[in-house]
Amino acid sequence: MTLNKLKDQINSKLAEQPGNFAVAFKDLSTGDSLLINEQEFFHAASTMKTPIMIEVYKQAAAGRFSLNDSVVLKNEFKSIVDSSLFSLNAKDDSDTSLYQHLGEQISLYNLVYDMIIRSSNLATNMVIEMVNARNVTQTMRQLGANKIQILRGVEDSKAFDKGLNNVTTANDLMVIYEKMAKGELIDSASSQAMIKILLNQEFNEIIPARLPKDVKVAHKTGNITHVLHDSGIVFLPNGKKYVLVILSKDLQNETNAKKAMAEVSEMIYKYVSTPRES
Question: Does position 255 have pLDDT exceeding 90, yes or no?
């Protein structure tokens, strides 16, 4: 199977679904890559939580704070539009457990962990307030991710109404995960620490869904209405690894789209794991 043939197969699989898709794949052993609509903008949804985590580790490495530091958990945040206060609704959050601990001290590490593995919006807003969204975007530029734009936390409806949303491209997410996989984000220890968190991801319906159990995926998903994403690093038992990003928007049937995206992930896995004639 050639890369071109794989690309054709992926395109025809995704063409069965109403919606728009982007794919960015890079085999870190061979350098093979496959790109489909990789520069197109997508609402970042929760994929933006990985850039936020990177910024936390960057600032911690610079000595601004330690991941063991604790903060008081609150549910009151400022809109980026006019600084008016808003709160999150636990019912709209994929992780409701944190809301039972408002007013208590919680470590920054635990907030980052919940932000990634359960996609906690409350944890995300706490963390983004500490590191500042502007810094996140600036760090992305320094890493060569030129289009990711992190403007705000989650559920800032005034900003949403004005179209002030976090955006990403498949290419940019591929860039940051490749650097993470190579140990080049901040330093090797920070890259490893972030991979360790991403490996505990609890939402596994896309990239890992159809892969063998001994394949490990360090990844972050994202979804809002009509939008489904997954992005991360895939580790094969033989030591091979690759980066895969699959983004989607304008979906009409999210269940079917999720299935198709999981099938694309499986196709890429088969391509990487099948020995090719030299």
Answer: yes
DSSP E strands in 134-215: the ranges are 167-168
Q: Mean pLDDT across the stretch 77-90?
A: 95
CATH homologous superfamily for 42-165?
DD-peptidase/beta-lactamase superfamily (3.40.710.10)
Q: Say whether pTM exceeds 0.85.
A: yes
- How far, in Å, CA of 168 to CA of 245, rounded? 11
Enclosing H/E stretch for 198: helix 188-198
Please state the φ and ψ torsions of residue 222, each to the nearest 5 degrees: -160, 140
Q: Which CATH number fits domain 1-40+169-278: 3.40.50.2300, 3.40.50.150, 3.40.50.300, 3.40.710.10?
A: 3.40.710.10
pLDDT digit string, tens, across residues 117-143: 999 999 999 999 999 999 999 999 999
The pairing of strands 216-224 and 77-78 is unpaired
